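Structure ticket #2291
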Amino acid sequence: MSQVNIGKQHPGAYQGLMQLNKTIMESATDSVLDERLIEPVKIRAAQLNGCAFCFKLQIRDAIEQGETPDRPADVPVWWESQYFLEQERRAADRGHVTLLSDYGRVPELSFPAEH
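Resolution: structure written out below.
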């Protein structure tokens, strides 16, 4: 299967995605979401969706934003990594939300209350 370069083949759609990403990032950083969750969640989504390009891109972005190479590299094995806090593990465990084709909808999620 070949990859599509959406930026070249559909520049309008690509610009729309970039604007959506910008809006999501602004909302995430303005919310109560811990900023350290954002890039690992994006890395996990790229991994689950099987996009090597996105996976490498998100790891590069995380490192540029101050992450050590160890944390992004351990996202695929988050459950046994020493680098992730409980909140981060719960976020990684919810990665199945990105696989909507398996569900046809977003499944119901519940997060345990913080103590």
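Closing remark: DSSP finds six helices and no strands in the chain.
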